[in-house]
Amino acid sequence: MEIWKEKYYELLNYQFKLLTRNKRTKEIIPLVFISPLFVIFLSIIDNHEHHFLLLLSFCSVYYIYFPLLFSWDSGCVRGIETKNIFIKDIILSKIIFSVVLNILSTIIVTPFIYFSDYYDIKEVLIFNLFNILFFPFIMTYLASFNNKKIDINQSRTLNLEGYSLVYVVFTILPLFVYIIIMILVSMLQIEPINIGVLLAFLSFLNLIYLKKWIRIILRNLEKKRYERLSNFKKDD
Amino acid sequence: MIEIEQLKKSFSMDFEINIPNLFLPKGKNIAIIGNNGAGKTTLLELILDLKKSDEGRILINADDNKKFIWKKITSSYLDEQFLIHFYTPKEYMKFCSVFYNQDFNLTLTRLKKYDDFFNFKYFNEKKLIRDYSKGNKQKIGILSTLVFESKLVILDEPFSHLDPGSKLLLGKILKENKSTTNIVSTHNIGIISKTFDLVFLMDQGKIIGTFDLENNPKNTEQLYNFFR
After folding, report:
1. pTM of the entire predicted model
2. A29 lies within 8 A of chain B by CB
3. B96 vs A83: CB contact, 8 Å cut-off?
4. Which of residues 118-147 of B touch A (CB under 8 A)?
5. How far apart are CA A66 and CA B86, in angstroms?
6. B52 touches chain A (CB under 8 A)
7. Would you call B91 an interface residue with chain A, using a CB distance cutoff of 8 Å?
8. Is B56 helix (H, G, I), strand (E, B) or coil?
9. Which residues in chain A touch residue B83, judged by CB atoms under 8 angstroms apart?
10. Of A173, A205, B69, B80, whose CB count within 10 A is highest?
């Protein structure tokens, strides 16, 4: 295997093990899949087509996983920062892993939507494309502002360790997208599918600027490097 | 190997790291000793750029440590946060092997060499690093700096949680490790004379003494006198 492939494989493997081997992160996994189903269920009993809810439903992972994207590493960050690993590779691996996580979530939930008859499957897939290709970048950028330390081996229940003002921004920011979509659909009478196509276009545009995104995130992380390292340091 | 110029880092009104000039030569076993709170760990953190200095600079192989070129040639273990606690020891060594561009089979062969220090059978266990005792965690961390034969090895109090036998063995391993520059902070004065070539004595954030034990073993007595 080529060296870079091996490195990325190892970094993605690290993200996977981080998610599946620690108490707090492990408890997120069912939520990622349950919450979209819950929103769909709400929509069905309400008998309305809430496109914004649909978009929101697939973003539940963002509210739980992303705000702490860099804080998850707080237990071993000193080792990672001093090993022969480039931070930009870590950022990219986190983005790739989040994209994979969202694709998985989409694959699992899509059949439920298909059989529910309340949504157009084309719309669903286009909205998901936006969630998969656009949100991980902006969320990774926002997560780079969160320098709160967490103990990932503590239970998630009633555990607010690591949450900060950034978390509030995380919750509000995607809502703006849904509000814009709601306005476009209800007031301007634009077909949701057309909005979806526009969002999909934005997502692909975003991919073209991948390197720029990583540079921006890297700059932000470097600016706060010492603050982050000091916050993450274990209190003996 | 490492040059420190006009290094200053303040923490409070009464404590600061202040090292006007310090040169740590290549290929030597170097110990930094001092009482608790002397600033040994902070100095190592400044070398590894884990802390920001207020003034001055640190050059590793003539490159500023802020350029991170040192990462390719440096292995370090200061505390448990240098380990990935949700990995097994074997997974951790594989992770390190990839980033130090070393074949994993070669890593395993080298690990077998240290069987007396850390039993090789642990590398076939599924137990995660976080479930090991403090001493064994320390051994995994130390081994992860030794098996990659990096040019620079930095260890913070590596003898502190080890049993007496392992302490002596580690001293021997470091002594025999001639191809690297080992920089070790320690309190263990008994091991120093047998292991290290050069000793820097620190107090209140300053280097207050240098002892060349390689060329002048009589300096050991002088060193002991400081602690009497």
Report:
1. 0.87
2. no
3. yes
4. 128, 130
5. 20
6. yes
7. yes
8. strand
9. 76, 79
10. B80
Tokens of A38: 């819950």
Contact B71 A84 (CB under 8 A): yes
Residue at token pair 């089979």 = B105
Chain B residues in contact with A82 (beta carbon < 8 A): 48, 50, 71, 74, 76, 82
Residue of B81, B92, B107 to mutate when probing chain A, most A C-beta within 10 A: B81
With a CB cutoff of 8 Å and minimum separation 6, the contacts of A201 are: none
Minimal CA separation from A75 to chain B, in Å: 6
Tell if the CB–CB gap between B50 and A14 is shorter than 8 Å: no
Domain boundaries in chain A? 3-232
Which run of H or E residues covers position B155? strand B152-156
SS3 assignment, position A186: helix
pLDDT tens-digit profile, chain B (228 residues): 889 999 888 887 778 888 898 899 988 899 999 888 888 999 999 999 999 999 999 999 888 888 888 899 999 999 999 999 999 999 999 999 999 989 999 999 999 988 888 888 888 888 999 999 999 999 999 999 999 888 999 999 998 888 888 888 998 898 888 889 999 998 877 788 888 888 999 988 888 888 888 787 777 777 777 776
ipTM of the complex model: 0.88
Q: Is A193 on the interface with B (CB under 8 A)?
A: no
Q: Which token pair is A230? A: 């000091």
Which position has the token pair 């931070």? A87
Q: How far is CA A24 from the centre of its chain?
A: 16
B185, B17 contact by CB (below 8 A)? no
Residue A25's CB is within 10 A of a number of other CB atoms, namely 22
